[in-house]
Amino acid sequence: xxxxxxxxGLQTTVQDMGRFNYLSQGVPFSGAMDKLSAQIANRVLxxxxxxxxxxxxxxxxxxxxxxxxxxxxxxxxxxxxxxGRRLPSNxxxxxxxGNTISIGHNKSGCRSYMAVAGGWDVPPVLGSRSTYLTxxxxxxxxxxxxxxxxxSSTGVLNPLNLAVYESLKAADINYPxxxxxxxxxxxxxxxxxxxxxxxxxDWFELSSTTDFFSQNFTVGLNSNRMGYHLQGAxxxxxxxxxxxxxxxxxxxxxxxxxxxxxLLMADAQTTGGYPRIAQVAAVDMxxxxxxxxxxxxxxxxxxLKEAETLLLKQWADxxxxxxxxKLKYA
Amino acid sequence: xxxxxxxxxxxxYPLGENALTIEFGSVIDEAISNRVTAFNRLLNQKPFPxxxxxxxxxxxxxxxxxxxTVINQKNITGTTCFEKVRxxxxxxxxxxxxNHAGEAQVITIPVCYGGEYGPDLQYVAEYHQxxxxxxxxxxxxxxxxxxxxxxxxGFTYLGGLDARLETPRKSTPRNSVxxxxxxxxxxxxxxxxxxxxxxxxxxxxxxxxMFDAAREQPALLKAGDRVKFEPVDGAGFExxxxx
Lengths: 330, 243
Prior knowledge:
Low-confidence stretches of chain B: 1-6
Helix content of chain A: 10-25%
Order of helices and strands of chain B: HEEHEEHHEHHEEEEEEEEH
Radius of gyration of chain A: 20 Å
Largest sheet of chain A: 7 strands, mixed, barrel
Distance between the termini of chain A: 23 Å
Oligomer: heterodimer
Mean pLDDT of chain B: 90
Number of helices of chain A: 5
Mean pLDDT of chain A: 96
């Protein structure tokens, strides 16, 4: 199973669920920005959820299928074949050699994913296949994919991968009549981001924390896999003084000395010295991953226990998806 | 001295659903840092199921864990992962951890000071009315402690800079600082592991690779290590240089 990149797109990288074991050495988590979509793409193929996937940013990328492919798409992008057929997301798709697939315009969202049966074949670096561009490590030679790059699958197929493959193999593009309802894993209101209070929440004026939970904030132009600048009400400090640098993580919302906010994302540095007003609930990070410059969001407070319960429930529900697919093809 | 700071009770707070931070204090202080280092060592010898990493900083230690595993630990009390992790940490006698700083061996880092490798040495020396040689002597005489690693992979924040070398950051950061560059920012000194923009005053460069993803331990130094700098000349730099 093999593809060749025709158009590189805005930022196309190989990612997995992240790099967990080198935080103490300053190496960030990385991994797919939208880990929910990335793992749905893997699960519907019968892959391990940590198999390498391709992350596309907005529209414009395209690739040529060099060898027959069992793939799965997910995320907010729209995948279209060269004869104009819109391909389904969140389910397996058989793509015979010779097709060209492009990522088309979608009115909302930012990132989309493509998994392949057995996972994309790139070498693990520090225990992960995720690309971390700042240190030029992981993924495909530590960089974004560009025109004419050839990606192959590992070729290691488990019995479930094989069963799905056999059921769909055909002369033309082929897919089953089922797909996972990704929306059921996301809240209906996709612009309200649930957060827990950050450690330094009380460093800010009441008027500012009131604004934080009542105003809209706009994702700034200067936003990338490391973090988003949020434009809107200024967060004024009632407690002055510097925060000693300490650990931060994806989802941490920092407030700069000017009172503007930065939402840290997958490639965020491991430590930071700005006060932390809030932490995005882990279950809502996929929503944040789909934001692009100009999008508006607001914040809603939940408790830590609720955030944890939501996360554990989402995990259990995703496991059920995998079990259902296993039963279907067993 | 800092007996009061070191003796204060640590504070626990969540960093999201996947991490907990222990705050030992809120200032840069050797005694507090030593508690962080000692507890970090102890915890990594006695990890709990689901714990996968710890990040030490100046006065905090953050513990990262997998909530799916932690919530199923029936023999640790607590109704949430945060409570379970906190209770586990309390059970390993966090309060007893004191100063074990003497254990760390001193790691020597060769540095070629001044010239093209240290374009700001002259400025730093003049700022303090020292000769460049005196500035080098002061910088290489001290033994530093790695307070933390952060910012980018392998970036070391070292404590122990002689007050006679404390120099503000450059007013305009450089677009590109070369890997191995040794810099000063205020009371801090540190080493850039990767090519990156940076505003620290660059006084020299080490030929050692501070971060190399191909190594078993990619970062040459870790939080808690002791470090000293050894001046080398251009020939010495080339001898150590690993392309």
